[in-house]
Amino acid sequence: MSVFVDKDSKVIIQGFTGQHATFHAEEAMNTGTNVVGGITPGKGGSTHLGLPVFNSVAEAVQETGADVSGIFVPPAVATDSLLEAVDAGVDVAVIIADGVPVQDMVRTKRYLAGRSTRIIGPNSPGIITPGECKVGIMPSHIHMKGRVGVVSRSGTLNYEAVSQMTALGLGQSTCVGIGGDPVNGTDFKTVLQAFEGDDDTDVVVMIGEIGGQQEVAAASWASQYMSKPLVAFIAGVSAPRGRRMGHAGAVIAGESDTATAKLDAIEALGHRVVRNPADIGDTVLRAVKETGERAGTGAS
Amino acid sequence: MNIHEYQAKSLLRQYRVTTPRGEVVYTSKAAARVAEELGGQRWVVKAQIHAGGRGKAGGVKIGNSPAKIAEITDQMLGSTLVTAQTGPEGQRVSRVLVERASRIERVFYLSMVVDRDAQRIVVMASAQGGVDIEEVAAADPDAIHTEYIDPGVGLVDFQCRKVATAIGLGKKTTSFTRLLKRMYRLFRDLDCLMLEVNPFIETEDGELVALDAKMSFDDNALFRQGDVVELRDFDEEDPKEVEASGHGLNYIALDGSVGCIVNGAGLAMGTMDAIVHHGGRPANFLDVGGGASPEKIANAFRIVLQDPNVRAILVNIFAGINRCDWIAQGVVLALKQQGGSATKEATRDQEIGVPVIVRLAGTNVEEGRRILDESGLELIQAVDLDDAASKAVLAAEGVPA
């Protein structure tokens, strides 16, 4: 199963003929993703990477039956592309761009009301179900098919965690990059809910950072409703107050926003927390082993 | 991006929100002239720096003659103001705002921010104005009224009436509604992240006036806010951070000894945390971003090395959209540019002065490592994050690798 994307996902790429889109679409296709076409307004009717190019998302969806869109356009025009994908009714829209104005996302969330599209991002590395479907910019080769669900606000820290797990033989069911912006399409709690309902996920890793209360809200939900173990890391223990640390959303506004406060709150809710980012893989391994022992099956 | 009070007030006036009459000046002579032109018996001189907490630090003073205003201005200009928000080094005052003093009947608090948890713009208002709102929130949270704005319909009149009633302005709902809706339009049109009017006052004549104003804008939206960009004051920012942003680097100076060059904001923070975990302290946050060219890496080295506290540099790259071979070329370029004869024959002191620890992973990692190996440079290579952080901390403490 996995969450949000799998081997049955039919993927289209917005901004298809651009340099980054081309590179990452090719890489995704080489690792098994079913890319069925793309969109570049004005270039409809041509082919790119052997696939049809359309002028609009609606047209692409109609012709190919695509249900997932990867949006690879610059931030200034990203909201336009995103709204077009939502309007065309794709199930999942993944938006990579770093630099989308926050009020655009506020309006986009309002536009979503009553519609069914799930937005992943912006400012996201994308989403990957290893060996089945990748919509994003993460390096495929560090991933391995398995049973750990990963959700992260950061791209490179996500890679760091995944590579630690893969080195220990711990594969991933799906890795979801929800993005580093203050207003994002999908929050931690929603992803935890999806992993809880996924038969292919045994353990979930949540990688957050300073700023906001999303991680604690998700952990609070998990302590009441999630049966699977949750391992959490929050980046930015050493971050100064009031400064934006790269990501638009990573700024400590109050005491409860600090990494230490969030780690303490999550630990108090009964979850495993990682204090040193180099220990993420080991901590997940312990959680997996204990789950296996409790279930009496030896989780693979 | 933040702007000065006088700039924020000018924007408010463009949206027909009333502010005290006044003018920004750069000399004491101009201050006296402005006071005379404004007329009246009392004037206020306000130091224009971005940091808050000016009042308590002596950055806001009242005088009752143009001569006195000139004297106050003379003292303020060129002085360094240390407030609760500037840090111990303070901020130099290069301009002041001279305003006619208002006759205050009542003071209030009014602000708008993008609330990340509600994912909406929220109005916050309180009858307890002129004090630190965080203190009000901690002591008496019910004293702050909040109203969330639906972006589909905008701020609606009934919400303004609710706010007015909540803060005791029930008799002024018409003028308050007009004022609040103008502020919301400004917030929306100019891509604000925060707009704070504290205090916002009712004068003895019954007029509603923005006595102070603070605004910050969404950096991600500056591409469509040309007029706002014009208001940026580089004197208020760390020169190293300004230079870094010019090179597409995200740099924040800290006070430790391990310089950091990392790709991705999350990993950059994670690297700092790993350094702290090993007993060291990061000298900076630095995210080289995606698609880092060799030149970009070389610039990153130059900026990190401007910090005299740096005793070791840790390069930690997990390449996804980046490429390890380009990063490695950048490291080689930087060390050769900075150090001249940075070869194994030379001692560390003749090179860039500090040991360099490199950890590469991800796209094209083999090629990246080969470039470093064949460069002839004396580098400390690390296999993973833990190894890198521990080696960097030891190197910064002067322990030989």
How does this model look, in words?
The complex is a heterodimer of chains A (300) and B (401). Chain A is α/β, with parallel strands linked by helices and 300 residues long. Chain A is 35% helix and 21% strand. Chain A has 2 domains: 1-123, NAD(P)-binding Rossmann-like Domain (Rossmann fold); 143-295, Succinyl-CoA synthetase domains (Rossmann fold), CATH 3.40.50.261. Chain A has a 7-stranded mixed β-sheet with strand order 3-4-2-1-5-6-7, with helices on both faces. In chain A, strands 9-8-11-10-12-13-14 form a 7-stranded mixed β-sheet, sandwiched between helices. In chain A, helix 2 crosses helix 3 (75-88) and helix 6 runs parallel beside helix 7. The model of chain A has no long low-confidence stretch (mean pLDDT 93). Chain B is of the alpha+beta class and 401 residues long. In chain B, strands 7, 8, 9, 10, 11 and 12 form a 6-stranded antiparallel β-sheet that branches. In chain B, helix 10 packs across helix 11 (324-339). Chain B is elongated, with a radius of gyration of 26 Å. The two termini of chain B are 42 Å apart. Residues 340-350 of chain B have low confidence and may be disordered. At the A-B interface, helix 4 and helix 5 of A face helix 9 and helix 13 of B.
Most extensive chain interface and residues per partner: A-B, 65 and 55 residues
CATH superfamily of the largest domain in chain A: Succinyl-CoA synthetase domains
User: Can you count the beta strands of chain B?
Assistant: 18
CATH structural fold name of the largest domain in chain A: Rossmann fold
Strand/helix succession of chain A: EHEEEHEHEHEEEEHEHEHEHEH
- Distance linking N and C termini of chain B: 42 Å
Shape of chain A: globular
Fourth-tier CATH superfamily name of the largest domain in chain B? Succinyl-CoA synthetase domains
Largest sheet of chain A: 7 strands, mixed
| Number of spatially distinct domains of chain A | 2
Find the CATH topology of the largest domain in chain B.
Rossmann fold
CATH architecture designation of the largest domain in chain A = 3-Layer(aba) Sandwich
Work out the number of β strands of chain A.
Answer: 14
Major sheet of chain B: 6 strands, antiparallel
Q: If helices are DSSP runs of H or I spanning 4 or more residues, what is the number of helices of chain B?
A: 13
Based on helices, strands and strand pairing, what is the structural class of chain B? Answer: alpha+beta
Residue share in β-strands of chain A: 15-25%
Principal-axis shape of chain B equals: elongated
- Rounded average pLDDT of chain A: 93
What integer value in Å does the Rg of chain B equal?
A: 26 Å
Please, how many helices of chain A? 9
